[in-house]
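User: Reviewer 2 asked us to show a designed sequence for the structure in our supplementary figure. I'm pasting the structure tokens here. Could you produce the per-position amino acids so we can include them in the response letter?
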């Protein structure tokens, strides 16, 4: 009986702990603009380091704890900022997959060179080449995600 009570109180504490921690911080002000890290659309003028918002150009806006001056005004600023985030995430994933593919390529090359005619080692290295190719294909596919997201978001 005591064991059930302790487990129940522990589970309750784990559920309540995040809410208690979040209550300690002041309520954050919502962002109403974003500073771009990528060139989203050169035709529309959404370029790197631009501050995009629905407010008028030259107005002050709030993003990530700082006050910025709007350089591009558009009603689609939420979609533009979302696309900037998609580009950031896909760039990170591309470099992760590319790095792993290069490391795996070196490892597979060493395995081929040290196999010394051993059929089991050669077969193991050949199967790893398959995973190497899959990693490269995934890295290239990650770079296609922003195009797909742009068509969905409509920016």
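Assistant: Here is a per-position design you can include in the supplement:
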């Amino acid at each position: 009986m005591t064991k059930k009570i302790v487990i129940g109180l522990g589970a309750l504490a784990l559920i309540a702990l995040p809410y208690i921690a979040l209550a300690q911080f002041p309520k954050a002000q919502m962002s109403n603009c974003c500073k771009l890290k990528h060139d989203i659309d050169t035709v529309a003028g959404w370029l790197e380091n631009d501050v995009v918002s629905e407010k008028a150009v030259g107005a002050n806006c709030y993003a990530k704890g700082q006050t910025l001056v709007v350089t591009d005004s558009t009603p689609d600023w939420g979609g533009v900022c979302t696309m900037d985030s998609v580009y950031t995430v896909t760039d990170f994933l591309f470099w992760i997959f590319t790095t792993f593919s290069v490391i795996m390529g070196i490892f597979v090359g060493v395995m081929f060179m040290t196999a010394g005619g051993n059929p089991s080692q050669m077969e193991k290295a050949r199967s790893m080449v398959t995973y190497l190719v899959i990693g490269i294909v995934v890295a290239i596919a990650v770079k296609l995600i922003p195009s797909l997201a742009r068509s969905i978001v409509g920016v």
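For the response letter, you might also mention the following. The CA atoms of residues 52 and 72 lie 5 Å apart. Strands lie at 33-35, 51-53, 60-63, 66-69, 72-73.
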